[in-house]
Design a protein that fits this description.
OB fold (Dihydrolipoamide Acetyltransferase, E2P); three-stranded mixed β-sheet; 2 domains; alpha+beta; 217 residues; 6 helices; single chain; 8 strands; DNA polymerase, domain 1
Length: 217
Amino acid sequence: MLSRRRERKFTIPDDYANVLDYMPTGNPVDRHPQHRVRAIAQAIGTKFFTLVEFYPKRGVDLQIGEEVFIGLHGVRDKVEYVFNERLMYADLTSVAKANLPEVVRKLVLRNEKIFVEFFNRAGPITIRFHAFELLPGIGKKSMWLVLEERKKSPFKSFEDIQNRVKINDPVKVIVDRILLELRGEEKYYIFIEPPPNAPPNAIALRYLERLYKILSI
């Protein structure tokens, strides 16, 4: 179930991304000199929450929150070049960081089926520690209640989870966990691939990858 991070060439798993910041004249504080002199955008993948940076095509004007195609197989109508070097949270602009929580929340709501299925299928990480305990605000009591309720019948929606196990806002719980993982300071990564700045012993649980396969989405 668990997989430790292996050094490998990074490939972006997302075909689409939502724009977090668009800088039509470049990013003056970017550590890459070439990014300071031409239009550039920062974005987050719509399925796997990968932070990416790309050059838009010349003459293209982007909007914050706009969805663009960044995949390898298809027509990039607004994107000229996507950088393979993975963008880290620390390299996001202040505008991108400010927009990140709301964009992630919209993506979690859009992928409700996937995250509800996480509540139906998540398992223990060790004999004493469950994946649910990595979610902000979820302690032992809430964990056992979720496990008992899903035995009775699978959860069907975020509202169903909220009503049956009294988690005030399951969407916020998921969003807060994704934001923590994007910062790269965690040992375990439920949803995203550990960023380059994650601890050397970081462990990827890769639930999103498995759930998309299970649900054929």
